[in-house]
Structures are given as structure tokens and as C-alpha cells.
Write a structure and sequence with these properties.
By secondary structure, the protein is an alpha/beta fold. Helix content is about 50%, strand content about 20%. Strands 1, 2, 3, 4, 5, 6, 7, 8, 9 and 10 form a ten-stranded mixed beta sheet that branches. Helix 1 runs parallel beside helix 10, helix 2 crosses helix 10 and helix 7 packs parallel to helix 12. The protein is globular. The termini are far apart.
């Protein structure tokens, strides 16, 4: 009986020691991280908005932690290729994903059982870096030749030329693709979707006149719009934006488009199972970087809105976005072949 009493009294002490040891391990792990090169995977070709934001944040992480941060572009399958690569990577904080509304909200509705990862279970969100409006941009020469000056004249042209206008995107399932599908559905027009492995090659072809229109993420088209190579007909946000103050919203064209609203966002993720202290350290540092005045200016200059929210808030937002875009996919009838 005496032995039992002694053991009973020892158990709480042992549990406390185990907890203390675990806390010490977590603290040591947090302090040691990062001790080597970090890779941020961009699941699109270089030059697009995802790539630009990854390089901005990666550069600042490298400065802050005195460790190299490299950007690795792994495009393909509407960003599923690069995203799946990160999902299968070691959960140690050294392989990150610059994910998007496509990889973490839209694709699951489009691909269903064909998805190579579960965007909720296989990742831990770190922080949303920026939200970005999409812009309805058209080849300037094509627009002038066909007397397209606004959304209404574009819709008239599309209805008069079914199946003859091509809409570029950075890949099937991206918000760029779904914005076009939503537009098609609401205007009852026939537009041909042409997917690329990122915004940069899509914009290149749009400028060259190989495709006619695109609902691009503003940052990757802004330079060509300012140069006059592309004509911005409208932005997809609920209100006009500071970067293009004279460009109306799609919704302002009225009629069937009166409730049109779509946008993109970009954020960092790590594989699920990454230790909580590392997630917390990344969250804190990314939030600090994004809110720096100099970094905010750089992000705003890209036509994006800096965010830098908490991991838990980002996770909740992703669940809401998943429901929203699933409805868009269902209503529009969008599909991937």
C-alpha cells in the first residue's frame, strides 16, 4: 500500500518533467530555426504575381535570418504540381509554398478526387501575404481595331463572335480562369479558355496578340497597361482601386454583371506537421515583413494590398473561400480536361 502511495505521488512530478522537457525541446527548436537554406516553392512560372511576391518576402526573410532563401518555380497542372511537392516535403520549415486562391480554394472544386493533395489537411497556413484584384485586360491593338472601349462593347463583340475570342489564364483552376468562367456564365457568351503555366507567359501572348483578353492578377499586367500595350477595361473588385483610379469595376457596367466580384490572394504555407514553434516564428516574421512601410510600398506598387494576418485567421478565411469558389465552379459549369 505504501509503495502505491509513493507511485501515485510521483506520477504528477513525472508528467510535469515530461512537459518541461517538451517545452525545452520546442524552445530549442524555435531558437535553432532556421539553421540552413529555406526554399519557397512557387507553383507557377517565374515573372507572375505569385513569383514576384515570393521573391519580395524571400529576400526579406534572408536578410532577417542571415540564411539563403531561394525561390524554386515548379509550374504545372494549375499549380497542383508544385503544391503537391511541398505537401510531400519534410515538415521542418525549410520548404514553403507560396500558395494562392487557386491552390487552396478553387482547385479542390475543379479537380475533386483527382487532386494530388488535400489543401486543408496537408498544409498549415502561415500568413496571407497580399490580396490582389483581377483586371480585365485586352490587347490594345485588338481593342482599337474592334472598337472595344469598355465592358459593354466587349460583351457586344463577344456575342457577335461566339467562339472566336480567346481568354488567357495562368492555368486551369486559377482565379484568373474562374473570373473568365464567371464572366462567360453571367453574360452568356462563348469564350475559348487558353491556359498557360503562369501569368507571365500568358501576358506575353496577350501583348503579342496571340490571345485577346485576360482577367489577370493586376501586378503582372500593370506594367503593360501603363505602357499602353494592354487596355484595362475593368477591375473585378467591388470598388475601383488606387492603382487604376480611372478604371471602373466590372459590376459598374450593370445588367447581368451588377454583382460581379472576384479577386486573388497569395500566402505562405508549410506541410502539415511542421512544429508549432516554427509555424509561430514564420508567422511572426512574415507579418512583420509585410507590414514594414518599405515593403508595403513595394506591394502596393504591384497593385496588391498587403495583409500579413495570423495563421489561425488565414486558415478560417481559406475555409470560407473554399465554399465560395465551389459555388462559382458549380454555377459556371467550369471544368478541367
Amino acid at each position: 500500500m505504501e509503495t502505491r502511495v509513493k507511485i501515485t505521488h510521483l506520477l504528477p512530478a513525472a508528467a510535469m518533467a515530461a512537459l518541461a522537457f517538451g517545452a525545452a525541446q520546442a524552445q530549442a527548436q524555435n531558437q535553432a530555426y532556421p539553421s540552413k537554406q529555406i526554399t519557397i516553392v512557387v507553383p507557377f512560372a517565374s515573372g507572375g504575381t505569385t513569383d514576384v511576391l515570393a521573391r519580395l518576402v524571400g529576400g526579406e526573410l534572408s536578410k532577417a535570418w542571415s540564411q539563403p532563401v531561394i525561390i524554386e518555380n515548379k509550374p504545372g497542372a494549375a499549380a497542383n504540381t508544385g503544391s503537391a511537392y511541398v505537401a510531400r516535403s519534410a515538415p521542418d520549415g525549410y520548404t514553403l509554398l507560396m500558395g494562392t486562391v487557386g491552390t487552396h480554394a478553387i482547385n479542390t472544386a475543379l479537380y475533386g478526387a483527382k487532386m494530388p493533395f488535400d489543401h486543408i489537411k496537408d498544409f498549415t497556413p502561415i500568413s496571407m501575404v497580399a490580396s490582389v484584384p483581377n483586371v480585365l485586360a485586352v490587347n490594345a491593338e485588338w481593342a482599337e481595331r474592334n472598337k472595344i472601349t469598355d465592358v459593354k462593347s466587349l460583351v457586344s463583340h463577344l456575342k457577335a463572335n461566339p467562339g472566336k475570342v480567346n481568354c488567357a489564364s495562368s492555368g486551369a483552376g486559377t482565379s484568373i480562369h474562374l473570373s473568365c468562367e464567371m464572366f462567360k456564365s453571367k453574360t452568356k457568351t462563348d469564350i475559348v479558355h487558353v491556359p498557360y503555366k503562369g501569368s507571365a507567359p500568358a501576358v506575353t501572348d496577350l501583348v503579342a496578340g496571340n490571345v485577346e483578353i485576360m482577367f489577370d492578377n493586376l501586378p503582372s499586367s500593370l506594367g503593360q497597361i501603363k505602357a499602353g500595350k494592354l487596355k484595362a477595361l475593368a477591375v473585378t473588385t467591388a470598388k475601383p482601386i488606387a492603382a487604376l483610379p480611372n478604371v471602373p469595376t466590372v459590376a459598374q457596367s450593370g445588367g447581368e454583371l451588377a454583382d460581379f466580384e472576384a479577386g486573388s490572394w497569395f500566402g505562405l504555407f508549410v506541410p502539415s506537421g511542421t512544429p508549432a514553434p516554427i509555424v509561430a516564428k514564420l508567422e511572426q516574421e512574415v507579418g512583420r515583413i509585410v507590414q514594414q512601410p518599405q515593403m508595403r510600398e513595394k506591394i502596393l506598387a504591384q497593385g496588391a494590398e498587403p495583409v500579413g494576418n495570423k495563421s489561425a485567421d488565414f486558415a478560417g478565411y481559406i475555409k470560407t473561400e473554399t465554399v465560395k469558389w465551389a459555388q462559382v465552379v458549380k454555377t459556371s459549369g467550369a471544368r478541367v480536361d
